[in-house]
Design goal:
Layout lengths: L12 H18 L5 H11 L18 H24 L7 H27 L9 H5 L7 H11 L1 H17 L6 H21 L5 H16 L2 H8 L17 H33 L10 E10 L2 E2 L10 E9 L2 E8 L4 E9 L4 E6 L7 E9 L2 E8 L2 E10 L5 H4 L13
Antiparallel strand pairs: 1-2, 1-3, 1-9, 3-4, 4-5, 5-6, 6-7, 7-8, 8-9
Length: about 425
């Protein structure tokens, strides 16, 4: 009968150095740090001597200058702590207790993050189906990130597959008995995410790389057992699942608290998933004017303009997409240039308010009418001009990406 595996009583110097560094670095990365928005720009200005001031703070991009300088700060502090810690504590044989609790923190942190990303795919809110503007956009005009979002958003089944892999991998990390299996699954899952982020220029490279590093660290604590089984064909001792002897009351209390915590995390992610899907997912209600419209008649300041392909002022298409509580409108000119705005529709007053998506505060107000189900008439002032536009709705199902569907049998490849 194999002896239960416990952490070694004597660590070598490399193990102790590595642990001290990653212990400080991971805690800095995970825990909230006060005054960070003041510290990081100061470091960029006075220590790194950046040629520009850091003015963009954490937002939808995780690869800002702020984020890179932030990681530099974490590494610098971790190296300084490593040096001081090594000088003050050089006689310690091991850090088994600290390692145990660090792994616990990383397991629960990774599980929580994976639940968030996983359920966002299960409920298909991270990658919704390509909107009308995206469907009209030539491949060559999309960004690499936009191409990745279109690829992911097209297939609900693939979202479920990747999302469930994240949820299952994260769930397995919540239990010591299945930690190694969960870490192996997540290395594959997060590794694929890191590859997508780097290869498609998705600005979450730093964050996903750190998640992968944490997962590798968790798996490394059982590295010798895995090497014995997978590479050396040797028996591996069982893992000691009770490294700390505690009272029966404490064990019961720990199980109850853990069950409540896991239940709450699952409930919150599932409830948020349903709510977000109703607001922003594929099942969210569309706006009252949603559709793809061809411009039949267009008058600017009282003059009806002929559809000349060189005209930079006449509309050729109007694309109204988005959701009921967040609609967007895009105007495609005859010259093929495209301009996007936010759209607010008042169905009681038959009024549409168009605003720039970023920065500017000016707005344009249109009155609209619906002579029939396929016709929409806009009349009002756009920028400094008086505009009259009669629009004809176009069928959305004409897009191959929308109507192709799934086929078990393909006698020939259908690659268009």
């Amino acid at each position: 009968m194999s002896q239960a595996l416990v952490y070694p009583l004597q660590w070598n110097s490399a193990q102790k150095l590595a642990f001290r560094f990653f212990f400080v670095y991971f805690l800095l990365y995970i825990l909230p740090i006060p005054f960070k928005n003041s510290i990081v720009p100061w470091v960029g200005r006075n220590i790194i001597h950046l040629p520009y001031e850091i003015t963009v703070f954490p937002n939808g991009s995780g690869d800002t200058t702020f984020n890179y300088v932030e990681v530099f700060c974490y590494v610098a502090v971790a190296v300084a702590a490593l040096i001081v810690w090594s000088l003050l504590d050089r006689r310690r044989a091991n850090y088994n207790t600290l390692l145990y609790w660090l792994v616990v923190v990383l397991r629960y942190y990774l599980a929580t993050i994976m639940f968030g990303y996983g359920f966002a795919k299960v409920f298909k809110t991270q990658f919704p189906f390509p909107n009308l503007t995206r469907l009209l956009e030539p491949y060559g005009q999309s960004s690499p990130m936009g191409l990745a979002w279109t690829f992911m958003g097209y297939s609900t089944a693939y979202n479920w597959f990747t999302g469930l892999a994240e949820v299952v991998g994260g769930g397995l990390l919540l239990f010591r008995r299945s930690t190694a299996l969960g870490a192996v699954i997540l290395i594959a899952v997060i590794g694929n995410i890191v590859a997508i982020n780097f290869c498609f220029d998705v600005p979450v490279k730093l964050y996903s790389s750190n998640l992968l590093l944490m997962t590798l660290f968790v798996l490394a604590t059982e590295g010798k057992r895995l090497i014995n089984v997978l590479l050396l064909n040797r028996p591996a001792p069982a893992l000691d699942l009770t490294p700390f002897r505690t009272s029966r009351r404490w064990r019961i209390g720990r199980v109850v608290i853990k069950a409540l915590l896991i239940g709450f995390v699952f409930y919150k992610n599932i409830a948020d998933g349903f709510l977000t899907n109703k607001q922003y997912g594929d099942n969210a209600p569309k706006g009252p004017l949603y559709g793809l419209y061809q411009v039949e008649t267009f008058a600017l300041n009282g003059d009806t303009l002929a559809p000349m392909m060189t005209d930079t002022t006449r509309w050729r298409q109007v694309i109204i997409s988005g959701y009921h509580n967040f609609s967007t409108i895009h105007f495609r000119m005859m010259s093929d240039s495209l301009y996007g705005y936010t759209l607010e529709v008042d169905t009681a007053k038959l009024r549409a308010v168009v605003r720039p998506r970023f920065g500017a505060t000016e707005q344009s107000v249109f009155r609209y009418t619906r002579p029939d189900t396929n016709t929409l008439v806009f009349q009002g002032r756009f920028r400094q001009d008086s505009v009259y536009a009669r629009l004809r709705r176009q069928p959305v199902g004409r897009f191959l990406l929308v109507n192709r569907g799934f086929h078990w049998i393909n006698e020939y490849p259908f690659n268009r």
